[in-house]
Amino acid sequence: MLEVSNIKKSYGRKTVLEHISFHAESGECVAIVGRNGCGKTTLMQILAGVIRPNEGELRYFGKDPLSKKKYFHKLCGYVPQELPLMEELSVKDNLRLWGVGTRKEDQELIREFQLEELMRVTVAKLSGGMKRRLSIACALAEWPAILFMDEPSTALDLYYKESIGNWIKTYCGMNGIVVMATHDEKEILSCDRCLLMKEGKLCELSKEEMNIDFIKEMLA
Ligand SMILES: Nc1ncnc2c1ncn2[C@@H]1O[C@H](COP(=O)(O)OP(=O)(O)OP(=O)(O)O)[C@@H](O)[C@H]1O
């Protein structure tokens, strides 16, 4: 279980996040939706241990990753908006850097994200969608229990959007937790729950409220 309590984050005098609290159970996929610049990436970075909040607590399966950073590495995978890839290295070498090697499950991951044919290609030569598939595979190297994804379907074509969507369902079916920041209508509706971010705060939508017209109205 993932528990987030009272997170606050300011950049200088500007408070971006305040009183952010939510939880997610194993097997749940949670969407975080909000206007550009409302703080979604800031929250994802805090949840993944990239930056620290000014206030608040995190508990991942009862463990406190803010006090022991290794729990971030042990328990979470992160697919950031800006892809964390070494452009001058090959796909294979990037995967190796993240720990995807020759184990059976590594080969499955490479197959799942259709990277077999690209293993020798330099990352700089890949399309945006190929890079995104690679960065998702890198985030999954250690089969984390929780996956944070910042706009995961950006740059993916319709085929891969569907394929990543199906993969997320399978991952949650195996008790994984996914928290994703997204602007994609289909992706939002495919999540189990939706949290709306506005003016630095989060509120959860009911099942009835989880429709695009209502969300647009709320964000206007
Ligand atoms: N390192 C930083 N220093 C100062 N301000 C920052 C920093 N990072 C983000 N911000 C500001 O914090 C606010 C939230 O930014 P953030 O990237 O979290 O928004 P977002 O909801 O992810 O936006 P988008 O949907 O466009 O990706 C913005 O006003 C941004 O300018």
UniProtKB/TrEMBL annotation:
<dbReference type="Pfam" id="PF00005">
    <property type="entry name" value="ABC_tran"/>
</dbReference>
<dbReference type="InterPro" id="IPR003439">
    <property type="entry name" value="ABC_transporter-like_ATP-bd"/>
</dbReference>
<keyword id="KW-0813">Transport</keyword>
<dbReference type="InterPro" id="IPR027417">
    <property type="entry name" value="P-loop_NTPase"/>
</dbReference>
<dbReference type="GO" id="GO:0005524">
    <property type="term" value="F:ATP binding"/>
</dbReference>
<dbReference type="InterPro" id="IPR050763">
    <property type="entry name" value="ABC_transporter_ATP-binding"/>
</dbReference>
<feature type="domain" description="ABC transporter">
    <location>
        <begin position="2"/>
        <end position="218"/>
    </location>
</feature>
<keyword id="KW-0067">ATP-binding</keyword>
<dbReference type="InterPro" id="IPR003593">
    <property type="entry name" value="AAA+_ATPase"/>
</dbReference>
<keyword id="KW-0547">Nucleotide-binding</keyword>
<dbReference type="GO" id="GO:0016887">
    <property type="term" value="F:ATP hydrolysis activity"/>
</dbReference>
<comment type="similarity">
    <text>Belongs to the ABC transporter superfamily.</text>
</comment>
<dbReference type="InterPro" id="IPR017871">
    <property type="entry name" value="ABC_transporter-like_CS"/>
</dbReference>
<protein>
    <submittedName>
        <fullName>ABC transporter ATP-binding protein</fullName>
    </submittedName>
</protein>
